[in-house]
Sequence to fold (55 residues):
Amino acid sequence: MTKTIAIVAFFAAFGGWIAHLYACFTLDQWAFLFVGAIIFPVGVIHGWGVLLGIW
Fold:
């Protein structure tokens, strides 16, 4: 059960980070791209915000 939760959390974080990268590349937000790439949680939160339509 613990492995399953860890795998789901990994893919959720990775998916949010990929969404962050895609959004920043398509919207030409270069400074935010670098911040989200260096500080991983910022990218994940922004990515999920983009996916959920918050940003």
